[in-house]
């Protein structure tokens, strides 16, 4: 061990001001001790707006469980941008993310990613995962909310002959439905999977209604007896949560949800204020319902971010002065030097951030 450390010190002297890893990365871009990376191995266009990006991660990646997500970094115009994406590949396989071209970073990933590109990675996270013991399952998804559930289906259905899964997926049209052909093929091949698509345009613009059990009774009559997983837009998940809360004494315990956005308390927005980003020498007037993360990005500040919903804490930024309002609870707080989650806090008067 002492000899290895001595060799590393000698190598560092020879490569200063760069590190030995910087030269090694020229040969193998995944060989970095500073930042976990992955190389893109395949790019698949799923719909007109959605793309699946397969990648091979470097050493240090933890194998993902079906349904988990990971923070993904990409260089855009020389700036490293981070976002969180659900992993759509089956557990036990190299990971993949399925990205819809909405927003600056997701659009760049969906439109511009090529085989051989390098992604920056953090390890998989999240507890939206399959139950520990076999049981009948109901998967309720809408739009890109299918992504983590697809990982679950790809993991469970081909490997478990006793699998009993009903998937109800809502999309605008068949052309917009992610993984449509693959799901129909899996349902033909494996009797344990039932797939029900709900196309809103074919239903006269009517969305899948979860405010009462009528639609569910038609699509999955035994829905109350299944362990349910739901992922999709906030209003979709809010309706599902309320329905399960009123479905029986144990209904809520049978519903697991995954949100792509934080649950904000209605009416938490206040007057807002002038937000000053001191190191970036920029400032912007921000409303009391605008997350500080969004305010910073709007005026061109490179803001640290991850899940963008108050979970991963990657957006923590020191507060220099002022008060902020937690958009989930309405609580106004802030002390000098306090680390603020910018994705779920807004200005409550003038605010100065150390970034």
Automatic annotation (TrEMBL):
What protein am I looking at?
Answer: Oxidoreductase
* Ranges of residues in domain 2Fe-2S ferredoxin-type: 273-355
Q: Which InterPro entries match?
A: 2Fe-2S_ferredoxin-like_sf (IPR036010), 2Fe-2S_ferredoxin-type (IPR001041), Beta-grasp_dom_sf (IPR012675), FAD-bd_FR_type (IPR017927), FNR_nucleotide-bd (IPR039261), MRET (IPR050415), OxRdtase_FAD/NAD-bd (IPR001433), Riboflavin_synthase-like_b-brl (IPR017938)
User: Which top-level group of life is the source organism from?
Assistant: Bacteria
Which cofactors does the annotated protein need, by name? FAD
Query: What are the protein's UniProt keywords?
Result: 2Fe-2S, FAD, Flavoprotein, Iron, Iron-sulfur, Metal-binding, Oxidoreductase
- Domain FAD-binding FR-type, first and last residues per copy: 33-131
- Which one of the record's GO molecular function terms can you name? oxidoreductase activity
Which Pfam family is an annotated match for this chain, by its short name? NAD_binding_1
């Amino acid at each position: 061990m002492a000899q290895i450390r001595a060799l590393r010190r000698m190598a560092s002297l020879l490569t200063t001001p760069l590190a030995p890893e910087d030269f090694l990365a020229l040969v193998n871009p995944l060989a970095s001790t500073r930042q976990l990376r992955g190389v893109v191995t395949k790019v698949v266009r799923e719909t007109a707006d959605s793309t699946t990006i397969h990648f091979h991660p470097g050493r240090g990646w933890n194998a993902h469980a079906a349904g988990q997500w990971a923070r993904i970094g990409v260089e855009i115009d020389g700036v490293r941008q981070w976002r969180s994406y659900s992993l759509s590949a089956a557990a036990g396989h190299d990971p993949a993310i399925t990205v819809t071209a909405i927003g600056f970073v997701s659009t760049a990933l969906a439109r511009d990613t090529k085989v051989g590109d390098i992604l920056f990675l953090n390890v998989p996270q999240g507890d939206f995962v399959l139950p520990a013991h076999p049981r009948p399952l109901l998967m309720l998804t809408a739009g890109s909310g299918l992504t983590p559930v697809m990982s679950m289906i790809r993991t469970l259905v081909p490997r478990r002959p006793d699998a009993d899964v009903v998937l109800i997926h809502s999309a605008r049209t068949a052309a917009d439905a992610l993984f449509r052909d693959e799901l129909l093929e899996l349902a033909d091949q494996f009797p344990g999977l039932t797939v029900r698509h709900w196309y809103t345009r074919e239903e006269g613009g009517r969305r899948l209604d979860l405010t009462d059990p009528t639609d569910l009774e038609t699509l999955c009559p035994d829905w109350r007896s299944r362990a349910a997983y739901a992922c999709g837009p906030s209003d979709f998940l809010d309706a599902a949560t309320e329905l399960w809360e009123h479905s029986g004494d144990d209904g809520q315990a049978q519903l697991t949800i995954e949100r792509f956005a934080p649950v904000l308390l209605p009416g938490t927005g206040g007057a807002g204020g002038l937000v000053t980003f001191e190191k970036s020498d920029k400032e912007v007037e921000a409303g009391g319902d605008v997350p500080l993360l969004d305010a910073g990005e709007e005026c061109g500040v490179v803001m640290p971010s991850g899940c963008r919903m108050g979970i991963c804490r990657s957006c923590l930024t020191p507060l220099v002065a002022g008060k902020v309002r937690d958009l989930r609870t309405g609580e106004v707080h802030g002390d000098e030097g306090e680390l603020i989650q910018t994705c779920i806090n807004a200005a409550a008067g003038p605010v100065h951030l150390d970034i």
